[in-house]
Amino acid sequence: MRKLSIDDLNRESVEEFKNKKKIPLVLVLDNVRSLNNVGSVFRTADAFMAEKVYLCGITGKPPHRDIEKTALGATESVEWEHVPDTLELVKDLKAQGYQVGSVEQAERSIKLNAFAPEPGQKYALVLGNEVFGVEQEVINHSDFVLEIPQFGTKHSLNISVATGVVVWDFLSKTLTGAK
């Protein structure tokens, strides 16, 4: 077995990627402090073809060397927008027909393994601050809360890891038509 080179992977250009149909998912970063986490979310959004990343509140925005350090150019391929207020964005996305889910530990949350995206439905997933998580007011306006089942002694995952887990789960269920 031979490890593949960059040339073997035959990746699309940034322009080709931008014109490609994406999965019906946007990511909303709610006051994320770490610029490295922001960059990692961009890279995940690129890898799994998310439509867009919204950077809300104090979340840092490109161009910034700490974001680029982990994004590795994904800030050029992934559509993004900075929005001052997460709650206002959630309300706007809902008005545009998105089902909004907060990724958080909360009462009546849906375990990720039990979540089944509806075919044809657009989704927005809110990921929160590294210390405080998703703001309670945002959770109150969410259509649902997704919780990643965890079995160890720690009570949370790093936001970039949580994003990778949730987006891969969403993509794999979307591709297989899980319901």
UniProtKB/TrEMBL annotation:
GO terms for molecular function: RNA binding; RNA methyltransferase activity. This is RNA methyltransferase. Coiled coil: none annotated. It holds the Pfam family SpoU_methylase. One of its GO terms (biological process) is RNA processing. Residues 25-167 form the tRNA/rRNA methyltransferase SpoU type domain. GO terms for cellular component: cytosol. Keywords: Methyltransferase, Transferase. It comes from Pontibacter actiniarum.
